[in-house]
Amino acid sequence: MSRYWSSLIDRLTPYIPGEQPKQQNVIKLNTNENPYPPSPMIKEAMIGEMDRLRLYPDPNADILKDAISKVYEVSRENIFVGGNGSDEILAHIFHGLLKHDLPILFPEITYSFYPVYCALYDITFEKIPLDGSFQIRLGDYIRPNGGIIFPNPNAPTGCIRPIEEIENLLKQNPDSIVVVDEAYIDFGGESAIPLTKKYENLLVVQTLSKSRSLAGLRVGFAIGSLPLIEALERVKNSFNSYPLDRLAIAGATASILDRNHFEKTRQKIIETREQLSKKLENLGFFVLPSKTNFLFARHPEHDGKRLHQMLRDKGILVRHFTDPKINQYLRITIGTEEECEILTKTLSSIL
Ligand code: PMP
Q: Judging by DSSP bridges, how do beta strands 125-128 and 104-107 pair with one another?
């Protein structure tokens, strides 16, 4: 194409979401969804909202903010809630807060949406290498100002940095915006939310897609200082004043308030993860320590791509990445105990 706009199209390098197969009989361990249904409380709340669908939703989603405020012990003014998952909140963050004269920093191996947003919003970035054990080296993220973003725990590795290191990073970067993407924090990690009360430059982003089994509802939230939340509100209101529909607000609120269901399901996933990790090690896999709802593992004698294909042929979907730095690894979502049992039996039959 030689038209002037071909370069505009070339610049866009979209994220390709994980496969969502149409068949029902597939064991789906490829997109880090929760294997358990969401809180039963959400049904009643959402049905109750049906008759009101003729009305616009509350643009501020105050009942949801109140629920988050209660459960996470932060003021309502320090909460931003957003539609279409935390991905859309991340988009607002890149758009409104991370654009800078200096390149923004994120890990070399991390959530592959970050460079996509950079391309969309014309943001320059620098990828910081992980250490030899796939850990994020927060000591390498020192900047006079600008932006820093990383998932904690990281994806797709599953590894976590302790909260003391994050506090240290904040102390060393008082003039940079530091964004911690906590999509997987509920599976055994310590959240940085309490640090938002002490550090004005910290923004923590969470999602209801993983630990609350609501990937299909598309709701996320961010917690931070008043100026950072105000910035996100301005981006939101320049983009779509109603990011959450009535059903999403009702369902998400009920989910946040159902602490029992949340505790039960996340503990179950943590237990299954530890069992699966041991079983994979017994099969000869090298498994990275994980604080997420997935495992990142490679077999020293079997090619990652081939293993991925062999599992696929037997109806088990896991995630494989083409990046040569990690192409020997499989990222395996923690399913139910039964699903993990079928996975390990299948692996032992093909190894
Ligand atoms: N951050 C990370 C690190 C993720 O892996 C994901 C899920 N793909 C997200 C954010 C976004 O999740 P969602 O849009 O479903 O909230």
A: parallel
Q: What is the mean pLDDT of residues 143-147?
A: 88
Rounded Cα distance, 316 and 120, in Å: 34
Q: What is the ipTM of this complex?
A: 0.99
Q: Which of 29-33, 100-104, 228-232 has the lowest mean pLDDT?
A: 100-104
92 and 235 in contact (C-beta within 8 Å)?
Answer: yes
Alpha helices in the chain (DSSP H): 6-11, 41-49, 62-72, 85-96, 113-121, 163-172, 226-237, 246-257, 259-282, 304-313, 337-350
Which of 15, 19, 86, 296 most suits a substitution to test ligand 1, by most atoms within 8 Å of the C-beta?
Answer: 86
Which alpha helices (DSSP H) does 122-240 contain, by range?
163-172, 226-237
Atom of ligand 1 nearest to the CA of 154: 3
- Residue 24: pLDDT band with limits 50, 70, 90: confident
Q: What are phi and psi of 204, to 5 degrees?
A: -110, 130
Place of tokens 């640090």: 195
Are the CB atoms for 116 and 16 separated by under 8 Å? no
Eight-class DSSP state of 259: H
Regarding pTM above 0.90, the answer is yes
